[in-house]
Design a protein that fits this description.
alpha/beta; five-stranded parallel sheet; 7 helices; single chain
């Protein structure tokens, strides 16, 4: 499995005492898929906006040859005010490549904060992610966040950010578990 995302998601520690995101993701996937030895390889996309990262992503995928990719997509795009059409086109290009190569994908949306609630650019990026995920039948998950960080004493915000990464790993594992062991519906 390949975990794509920002450098901070794969950095050791982050000063919180929690394991880095790829380690938590591997642990959560192994819990969700008993008897399966999950190996997560993490690659960072530091500061790259998606429209400039498509070639890098395809090169990494060709090198690693994963069966599943968890891509924390569009992390830098909202802050950079990246062109939404270029973002969507690049995302479609990468997802087409992954679809053709029969690689499953879970997209994790950029972090949400209360300050982004009325940001149309952020909403458009998230809409593009959801639209492309739907087009290719890939899962798109909102990143877990907490509004408590804004009400905590200094230093607590980074801990809650890391907790968001932790719960994101749990949600990804649940999506993978459900995809591999679907719940039987009514007959």
């Amino acid at each position: 499995m390949l975990a794509l995302g920002p450098t901070s998601a794969s950095a050791v520690g982050l000063g919180t005492g929690l394991a880095p995101f790829p380690v938590r993701l591997e642990h959560e996937l192994e819990k969700a898929l008993p008897g399966v030895d999950v190996m997560v390889e993490a690659r960072s996309l530091p500061g790259e906006i998606t429209a400039q990262a498509s070639t890098s992503i395809k090169n990494v995928v060709s090198e690693v040859e994963p069966e599943l990719i968890v891509w924390q997509v569009g992390i830098s795009d909202p802050l950079a005010q990246a062109d939404v059409a270029a973002f969507s086109d690049a995302l479609a290009e990468v997802l087409t490549f992954l679809h053709v190569h029969r690689i499953d994908v879970v997209l994790v949306q950029p972090p949400y904060t209360a300050a982004l609630a009325s940001d149309d650019h952020f909403k458009n990026i998230v809409t593009a992610i959801n639209d492309q995920a739907r087009e290719f039948s890939f899962a798109a998950l909102p990143r877990c966040t907490t509004s408590l960080s804004s009400r905590r004493p200094n230093g607590a915000a980074s801990r809650f950010k890391s907790m968001g990464y932790h719960c994101t790993a749990e949600h990804v594992a649940n999506v993978v578990r459900l995809a591999t062991n679907p719940v039987p519906g009514p007959k």
